[in-house]
């Protein structure tokens, strides 16, 4: 199933997108915020869609929450989805917690 359909199924309106490619996600109906590798150090709450290509390259650099967490879903054969929940009273997120959207 393609990314737009997977996001719709989970009720996700916007995604933090970290993928290998140059296509504009808006063309496919995906509202996204692009992220860079260093933006993964302190994740913001929300849903993250990451390409397997980028995840494999990230593992070569060193550990990160996104390479340790289990995805909650997959889009197609190359995009994994992760959820980061907001810490109570904090701006940073807590990877792996699955309550809420």
Describe this structure in words.
- The protein is an alpha/beta fold.
- It has one domain (3-95).
- Helix content is 21%, strand content 27%.
- It is built from 3 helices and 6 strands, in the order H-E-E-E-H-H-E-E-E.
- The protein has helices at residues 3-9, 52-61, 65-68, and strands spanning 15-18, 32-34, 46-51, 73-75, 79-86, 93-95.
- Strands 1, 2, 3, 4, 5 and 6 form a 6-stranded mixed beta sheet that branches.
- A hairpin with a 6-residue loop joins strand 5 (79-86) and strand 6 (93-95).
- The longest helix has 10 residues, at 52-61.
- The radius of gyration is 13 Å and the shape is globular.
- The chain starts with a helix and ends in a 6-residue tail after the last strand.
How are the SSEs ordered, and which strands pair?
Elements: H1 3-9, E1 15-18, E2 32-34, E3 46-51, H2 52-61, H3 65-68, E4 73-75, E5 79-86, E6 93-95
Parallel strand pairs: 1-2, 1-3
Antiparallel strand pairs: 3-5, 4-5, 5-6
Terminal-residue CA separation:
20 Å
Structural Rg: 13 Å
Count of DSSP-assigned helices: 3
The H-and-E topology, N to C, reads as HEEEHHEEE
Structural features:
101 residues, alpha/beta
Entry summary:
It is globular and about 30 Å long. The chain has helices spanning 3-9, 52-61, 65-68, and strands at residues 15-18, 32-34, 46-51, 73-75, 79-86, 93-95. The chain is built from three helices and six strands.
